[in-house]
From TrEMBL:
GO molecular function per UniProt: transaminase activity
Domain Aminotransferase class I/classII large, first and last residues per copy: 48-391
Record-linked InterPro entries: Aminotransferase_I/II_large, Class-II_PLP-Dep_Aminotrans, PyrdxlP-dep_Trfase, PyrdxlP-dep_Trfase_major, PyrdxlP-dep_Trfase_small
Protein name, entry field: cysteine-S-conjugate beta-lyase
Membrane-traversing stretches: none
Coiled-coil residue spans: none
């Protein structure tokens, strides 16, 4: 099945490969986003994009398969991703990350779980921004590491971190670890250098290990700029473990490939003392795809950001004009909109209302942490036409509420 429709130029079809998606192709795929909701519901929930992967990635994977290059890789010093990651950090952010401190894993959540396993013990408290990515919060619960929530502040200028609350929470709970998500999922906030330096001062004062999830770093909208936490100073570098992947920025979740950059010497030594295959080994095809994305995918990514930038402003426009009872800040990064529906005072979770009355599946609610019960997360990484139908369903479900 073709993944594109035969499009004619129109206002709603602006970029080939992004705005001319075939919904039959989307529904025919086995990935969870479109498969699980069923044929009568439009999905805007799980954080996958609807767009085909970059041609450079497709070409690289096809070439590897056609060459029958599927044997054991010869990587005595680690995969080529170690050097590729260091090069990309230097080129993009001016961060001199050390390639020999990079280790490969199959998934970002696995990266987090391994670091927590090595650096903490059951009962150790972990500070975390809330709302937060549900699998991170679920990981802390399952591993017996009590989450110490530090709520993000909703201000007239957008979402902000409460550094006084963080300092107090770390002191009260005796935290030794902070899980930092920057750019932030789900609010889309990008921390400034001044904010990161305030956070670094707290980390230094309390001797915190900072596990920094930076998977959305390449999905930042101008004039905002991502700054790797480990790049702030020598002290920040020594206490930070950086987690990332090409999965979000190039729509490659299924390749199961992520990297961890270990700043602390002791933690890196602990990692390398583990049996080599105990936590799995990354697929060579995942390495091929990630290398291709980082090496040859920038032109595709520029088009992607053009589409996502347009879509985030369209979401903001519709919410402001059709659903003014909802509170929302245009995200500075990611393709996720975090929407406050508390003023509606619904008798059911907003996610349920939107699905039943609007035919649209969003994410949100209590899995995102304390205080998130009446929030919605909308994934706008789709074509103009699909997004319009998603927003129409959202409006249909909520426009008459709270009036």
């Amino acid at each position: 099945m073709n993944f594109l429709v035969n499009a004619v130029p129109s206002e709603s079809l602006q970029l080939p490969g992004f705005d001319d998606l075939d919904r039959e192709w989307l529904r025919a795929r086995s990935s969870v986003k479109w498969h699980r909701p069923g044929p009568d519901v439009l999905p805007a929930w799980v954080a996958d994009m609807d767009f085909p992967v970059p041609p450079a990635v497709t070409d690289a994977l096809r070439d590897a398969v056609e060459r029958r290059d599927l044997g054991y890789p010869d990587w005595p010093a680690g995969s080529p991703l170690r050097t590729a990651f260091a090069r990309r950090m230097a080129d993009r952010y001016g961060w001199a990350a050390e390639a020999d401190r990079v280790r490969e894993q199959t998934d970002l959540i696995q990266c987090l779980q391994l670091v927590l396993h090595l650096a903490t013990s059951p009962g150790d408290a972990v500070a975390v921004q809330t709302p937060n990515y549900p699998p991170f919060l679920a990981t802390l619960s399952t591993m017996g590491r009590p989450a110490v929530p530090v709520p993000m502040l909703d201000t007239d200028q957008g979402w902000r971190m409460d550094f006084a609350a963080l300092d107090a929470a770390v002191t009260r709970a005796g935290c030794k670890v902070l899980v930092l998500v920057n750019p932030h999922n789900p609010t889309g906030r990008v921390l400034t250098r001044a904010e990161l330096e305030d956070l670094a001062a707290i980390a230094r004062r309390h001797d915190l290990l900072v596990i920094s999830d930076e998977i959305h770093a390449e999905l930042v909208y101008s004039p905002h700029r991502h700054i790797p936490f480990a790049s702030l100073s020598a002290d920040a570098a020594r206490r930070t473990v950086t987690l990332t992947s090409a999965g979000k920025a190039f729509n490659l979740a299924a390749i199961r490939c992520a990297v961890t950059h270990y700043g602390p010497d002791r933690l890196l030594a602990l990692r390398d003392a583990q049996p080599p295959d105990l936590y799995g080994t990354v697929s060579p095809l995942g390495v091929v795809a990630t290398e291709a994305a980082w090496r040859d995918g920038d032109a595709w990514q520029r088009d992607l950001l053009t589409v996502l930038d347009r879509n985030r402003h369209r979401v903001e426009q519709v919410l402001r004009t059709r659903l003014p009872q909802l509170r929302h800040h245009t995200p500075e990064a990611t393709y996720l909109a975090w929407i406050d529906a508390r003023l509606l005072r619904l008798e059911e979770p907003p996610v349920d209302r939107v699905r039943k009355a609007g035919g649209v599946l969003l994410d949100g609610g209590t899995p995102f942490g304390p205080g998130a019960a009446d929030f919605l997360r909308l994934n706008f990484a789709t074509s103009h036409a699909v997004l319009e139908d998603i927003l129409s369903g959202l409006t249909r479900a909520l426009a008459a509420s709270g009036q």
